[in-house]
């Protein structure tokens, strides 16, 4: 465990294991978990389905993937779509987390550390 020097006037306290257990069982923490899970689980499942679709089409329909479309073949466009959706999901998550998750986590941190 690293020791971080306290800032002048910093009155943070070190929570005990009992504090962490109590917080984990609190409605405030359960709401934070639900907020996190309501975004991450559906988006993770959707991206996994999209990725499996790409792999299955590439494996079982190579002729479809090789068809030209807008100057490139369909496979290249779908592959680029994988990258695009990764960046899009990351951006949307950051916006969602900053708006919904971080304020709740900060409130819990403030309550735990004083």
TrEMBL record:
<feature type="transmembrane region" description="Helical">
    <location>
        <begin position="39"/>
        <end position="62"/>
    </location>
</feature>
<dbReference type="Pfam" id="PF04341">
    <property type="entry name" value="DUF485"/>
</dbReference>
<keyword id="KW-1133">Transmembrane helix</keyword>
<keyword id="KW-0472">Membrane</keyword>
<keyword id="KW-0812">Transmembrane</keyword>
<protein>
    <submittedName>
        <fullName>DUF485 domain-containing protein</fullName>
    </submittedName>
</protein>
<dbReference type="InterPro" id="IPR007436">
    <property type="entry name" value="DUF485"/>
</dbReference>
<feature type="transmembrane region" description="Helical">
    <location>
        <begin position="74"/>
        <end position="96"/>
    </location>
</feature>
